[in-house]
Specification:
Layout lengths: L1 H13 L3 H77 L7 H12 L9 H9 L8 H37 L4 H9 L9 H7 L3 H40 L1
Helix pairs in contact: 1-2, 2-3, 2-4, 2-8, 3-6, 5-8
Length: 249
């Protein structure tokens, strides 16, 4: 094609047809520019298609992580609710409520002291953040909510770390010198188990203001964590809906 254009220009010049030559040259230039623009457009289209395919793969992976995270969030929320209930019962014992069965005291304090933590399964989005390529997710709602979820988890981790320190000071340390942990674990794991429990140890524990304060803090902090977890779960549910819609487009 280029050889044809060159030969045409040469023929026009030899025949002194300057006007036609200029018109032809301008037309040829326009054709070349149009050809370049079309080539760029095709290249951009191919690049956008490639990026979209990559985005969809990433969204699929993030969706899978979020759905797994949702399962873990529901479980830990249930456990936080259970711990708050047990902590409130333990506080009532320290405020004079009668203990009907020794196993109730052992079971509830073990339920509160048993340390449980949920860690999000956010592998795909974490890798995306570390690569600095978050902008590949074009939907701003999805992108911003994922960032909000990450920030919420960081805040939750800070609260949880503080709560663990409180557990060590007000519960783990005082109890370790008073009550047999093994008995508590046995009763908590199997409420129907028949073992001899120490009424004397419980009486000593009930005199500890540190332990009472520990259960007060445990109730307060578990309520706070529960609220944070519910907010994260709501954002996870919302993001799952948005990602599914984005994938279906």
């Amino acid at each position: 094609m280029i050889k044809f254009f060159r030969q045409t220009r040469y023929d026009l010049m030899n025949k002194n047809k300057t006007g036609k030559y200029l018109k032809y040259a301008i037309g040829e230039t326009i054709l070349v520019v149009v050809g370049i623009l079309i080539a760029l457009q095709i290249n951009n289209w191919n690049e956008n298609k490639k990026n979209r395919q990559q985005e969809l793969i990433i969204l699929e992976n993030i969706l899978q992580d979020l759905e797994n995270d949702k399962i873990g969030l529901n479980k830990i929320i249930e456990r936080r609710i259970s711990k708050v209930a047990s902590a409130e019962i333990m506080i009532s014992y320290y405020e004079g409520v009668k203990i009907d069965k020794l196993s109730d005291y052992y079971s509830h304090w073990t339920n509160v002291l048993y340390w449980e933590a949920h860690y999000p399964r956010n592998i795909a989005f974490k890798e995306l953040v570390n690569s600095g390529n978050v902008s590949i997710i074009k939907n701003a709602d999805i992108r911003n909510t994922l960032l909000d979820i990450t920030a919420s988890y960081e805040e939750l981790f800070a609260v949880r770390e503080h709560m663990y320190d409180d557990y060590g000071i007000y519960l783990y340390s005082p109890y370790s010198e008073i009550i047999d942990y093994g008995d508590g674990i046995k009763v908590w794991s199997n409420p129907n188990i028949k073992i001899e429990l120490s009424e004397k140890d419980i009486a000593v524990a009930l005199k500890s203001k540190a332990i009472k304060n520990g259960f007060t803090l445990a109730s307060f902090n578990n309520v706070g964590l529960q609220e944070q977890l519910i907010q994260i779960l709501n954002n996870v549910d919302l993001t799952i809906v948005w990602i599914k819609k984005e994938i279906e487009q």
